[in-house]
Amino acid sequence: MAAEGVEGLRTVVLDCPDPWKLSEFYLGLLGGEVVREESDDTWVAMIDPQGRRIAFQLSPDYRAPLFPDPAGSQQLHLDILVSDVEIAEPAVLALGATFVQAAEGFRVYTDPVGHTFCLVWFT
Q: What's the rounded Cα separation, in Å, for the pair 76 and 61?
């Protein structure tokens, strides 16, 4: 049960140096559409085919997170479900992702500005 007055999670927002450019990466990765197109280049929101919102917010002094970071954790990452990682991996790399490491049942990547995400599958 949610806290009184809380309806639920609306959007996951990622800080970045170029919201439009990063939105293109995630549109290519997840599909979907831009849901808020304005002349404001500081914010881009998209909705994926399952109805989840992700947005990209300008951070002029953006610094990419370190992963793995020996001094701390990654704080947040996205798990992207795939049906076949051997097909999905070349596609995400072609979009601009960087491979980080593999483990049983998932592989870790960073997006073009350093946010961590995993391709996950059920074996």
A: 19
Kindly report the CATH number assigned to the domain that includes residue 113: 3.10.180.10
CB atoms under 10 Å from CB of 113, counted, come to: 20
Q: What is the pLDDT of residues 30-86, one digit of tens each?
A: 999 998 656 677 999 999 999 999 999 999 999 988 877 777 776 788 999 999 999
CB-based contact 55:43 (threshold 8 Å):
yes
Q: In terms of residue numbers, what domain contains 54?
A: 12-58
Give CA–CA dist 24/31, Å, rounded. Answer: 10
Amino acid at 41: D
Helix (H, G, I), strand (E, B) or coil at 95: helix
pTM for this structure? 0.87
Distance CA 65, CA 63 (A): 6
